[in-house]
Amino acid sequence: MANQTQPPIESEQDVTDKIRQLRALFADAPELGKKTLENALREIKQQVSETPPPTIESAGRVGARLGKVSELTIIVPLAPGGAKRLRAFLRLLGGNLDKGDKVGSLHDMRFVFFDNDTRMLFATSFDGDWDAYIDDFVTQIPDYLDIIDSAWDGWPGIRSPGAKDYLAQHQISAESWYVANPNLTVAETRRLERVGKAVEEFLDKVG
Amino acid sequence: MAKQTAPANRPTQDLAVEQKIQKLREVFADAPQMAKTALENKLGELTSQASEPRSGMESAGRTGSRQGTVSELTLILPFAPGGARRLRALLQAQNGNFDDADKVGTVHDMRFVFLDDTKLLFATAYDGDWDPYIDDFATKIPDIMDIAFSAFEGWPGIHNPEVKDWIAKHQVTAEGWYVANRDLTVAETRRLEKVGKAVEEFLDKIG
């Protein structure tokens, strides 16, 4: 095996500073938080200084990305009657949003009503950059976006030039973003699933 | 190819779906025009999707939704005094990368989003049932859970018998949930990634 080159590591001083700041902030934490912080500090220090994890980057206009996988988290106020319409739509489909397949770059997607049906959370994880991803939605499933998003207060319509601004305005970037398999796109995972099946068939034949 | 025979109960099912579609159109009567137009465009597709969904949303157990092997957990959590500041410091010390989640083994993705200084959104996609998932957090990364979650009002501690009630109380179940590769667990995807690499090496050798 070839030697892997280590990514640049943070200086010992930087790490010590960060840890000191963290301790100071936790001075007024509940006892439970303080105690466990001390337990875990050694481990955190190791993580920060010795094995820098893959870096979180920007997904483009807004949102966080780890490797190839980005997050989109939108919180919107619902328009009058919007919750009722959207619930009826989702219930007709039993909560199944099979047309998400058409987007192609979409890993997962959820619709969650909260604050007594006055607000909605729309959260997805997807491949690559924000702009291209929104374009995929717009070109692949524009009608579904209008059916769903017209429940959102102030939605200008997917074909409006203001649609991207509206989405960006309501999006909040995650402060922390974890992905188990950050190097796998939806498409690559599907290809690997086929490779796995082919290998099994191959082994069956030679076995 | 063999001819497919229609199931005997098909006409009744269609009738039920027709009624639901009719209901949906009534609910959409006061929707913005673009939503009504989009709905009319998609009526045919919606009817067939509702009659024969490709996927089947179910419960993830105590709370939350599931598609295939992949479930969603969505928590909206009130900060304790000083909690937002502490949690931000912790997440920044990790460079926004909560890779302790690797140890849990069943987490597909996970995000921390500050809705404002009073509430946080914690959303994950994970394998299997709610109960063992929470158990995995408690057994594999208890300390980091207490450090992070002591930022919230009323966090009882990961080892407290009431911790599951606390989590369930703050969870909001998604009304719509989509997963692209819903038959693949985190572990199976990692195995397939290895199979893919092995196949490439194999083909290189014989090529």
Q: Taking Cα atoms only, what radius of gyration of chain B do you get, to the nearest Å?
A: 23 Å
Count of DSSP strands of chain A: 6
For the largest interface in this structure, which chains are involved and how many residues does each contribute?
Answer: A-B, 91 and 90 residues
Beta content of chain B: 15-25%
Order of helices and strands of chain B: HHHEEEHHEEHHHEH
Task: State mean pLDDT of chain B (0 to 100 scale).
Answer: 91
CATH architectural category of the largest domain in chain A: 2-Layer Sandwich
Distance between the termini of chain B: 37 Å
Distance between the termini of chain A: 30 Å
Looking at the structure, the CATH topology of the largest domain in chain A is Alpha-Beta Plaits
Looking at the structure, what is the overall shape of chain B? globular
Number of H/I helices of chain A: 8
- Largest sheet composition of chain A: 5 strands, antiparallel
Percentage of residues in DSSP E strands of chain A: 15-25%
CATH class of the largest domain in chain A: Alpha Beta
Q: Which class of secondary structure composition applies to the elements of chain A?
A: alpha+beta
Radius of gyration of chain A: 22 Å
Helix proportion of chain A:
40-55%
CATH class type of the domain at 59-170 in chain B: Alpha Beta
Overall shape of chain A: globular
